[in-house]
Automatic annotation (TrEMBL):
InterPro entries hit by this protein: 2Fe-2S-bd, 2Fe-2S-bd_dom_sf, 2Fe-2S_ferredoxin-like_sf, 2Fe-2S_ferredoxin-type, 2Fe2S_fd_BS, Aldehyde_Oxdr_Iron-Sulfur, Beta-grasp_dom_sf
Pfam families tied to this protein: Fer2 (PF00111), Fer2_2 (PF01799)
Record protein name field: 2Fe-2S ferredoxin-type domain-containing protein
Domain 2Fe-2S ferredoxin-type stretches: 1-75
PROSITE patterns associated with the record: 2FE2S_FER_1, 2FE2S_FER_2
Organism: Winogradskya consettensis
Keyword Metal-binding: yes
Record has Iron-sulfur as a keyword: yes
Pathway: Alkaloid degradation; nicotine degradation
Listed GO MF terms: 2 iron, 2 sulfur cluster binding; metal ion binding; oxidoreductase activity, acting on the aldehyde or oxo group of donors
Keywords, sorted A to Z: 2Fe-2S, Iron, Iron-sulfur, Metal-binding, Oxidoreductase
Amino acid sequence: MNLVVNGVGQALDIDPRTTLLDALREHLHLTGAKKGCDHGQCGACTVLLDGRRVNSCLVLAISQQDAEVTTVEGLAEGGQPHPVQRAFLEHDGYQCGYCTPGQICSAVGMLDELKQGWPSAVADDDLEAQIRERMSGNLCRCGAYANIVPAIVDAR
């Protein structure tokens, strides 16, 4: 099967039961996306699939023939961190760092959804509450939310 990962075409010979997460980590050695719960509940494995954020542990790689996947490793451009990556550094939006790649990929996707006007369950005038609601699928066991939300606000 073929994928475009971080802008580079990849031909993979994988078992049809292989998840996108395992294809990235085990076959392409891109270990940014983490295997947390392996049930789609924690968001540590979040990547962008054709521009939309997904839990890569729930997606069979074989079902994504020719899809474009962006991992945390592929967000930087020209050797410079993505604005969300930079904001996470500036705001200490991480502690142990395990969830950070998924948080960052989710934030990039979420900010695009926000920009496109996707609806939220939270009033439009409360940006921080909207970010918390939209990022609720990404858990941080260390509780760095107090720094994650301001980082995303700043990156916006």
